[in-house]
Amino acid sequence: MQNTIFYSEEDNKIFIRAHGHITAPLCYGLRQKVFNRFDINTEINGIYADLSGCDYMDSTFMGLLIGFNKKLEQMYQKQLYIIQPSKESKLHLADLGLDKILAYSEKDMSFPVKMEIVSQKEKVPAEFVLKAHEDLMELTEENRKKFLKVKEMLTKQIEEKNRKSKNK
């Protein structure tokens, strides 16, 4: 199976299954779906991310998971659960301190049989990547230092894009 994110909703719960290498172009559509669901303002009883088939995830995906968790806690005092993370997923999450924030479950969990494939976006907006990294930077001083150059570069790209659009 190729690099894919699957999505479904059932009983006011959001189910995400990540398979393969998960990078920013795969994440953008997921962000749209989940935050659109928050905008509906109907309670969400949890977000469950099955990472058993995920062998790589970039910092944008991890920042997105933190963003989902923050919003879920703010709105409903609930949290995102990582379900059966692969060995590689655990290492990536621990490297950025997410293992201390997100809830984990090693138990098999019943996910909906029908899950839609989240579409990939070829070019993701710099604003999306910046927000994911800012969420990671809030977690630890080490992350702040690690992603400071990324933040500076993305902020500069956004400012240049905004300046060009004003001059048109």
Structure characterization notes:
The protein has helices at residues 24-40, 59-76, 87-95, 126-137, 141-166; strands spanning 4-10, 13-22, 47-57, 80-83, 103-105, 116-117. 49% of the residues lie in helices and 22% in strands. Helix 4 runs antiparallel to helix 5 (141-166). The chain has 5 helices and 6 strands, in the order ββαβαβαββαα. The protein is of the alpha/beta class.
List the SSEs and their pairings.
Elements: E1 4-10, E2 13-22, H1 24-40, E3 47-57, H2 59-76, E4 80-83, H3 87-95, E5 103-105, E6 116-117, H4 126-137, H5 141-166
Parallel strand pairs: 2-3, 3-4, 4-5
Antiparallel strand pairs: 1-2, 1-6
Low-confidence stretches: none
CATH level 3 topology: Transcription Regulator spoIIAA
Would you report the number of β strands? 6
Largest sheet: 6 strands, mixed
H-E order: EEHEHEHEEHH
Distance between the termini: 44 Å
Number of domains in the coordinates? 1
Q: How much is the radius of gyration in Å?
A: 16 Å
Helix content: 40-55%
The gist of it:
It contains five helices and six strands; from the N terminus they run ββαβαβαββαα.
Key descriptive features of the protein:
single chain; 168 residues; alpha/beta; Transcription Regulator spoIIAA; six-stranded mixed β-sheet; globular
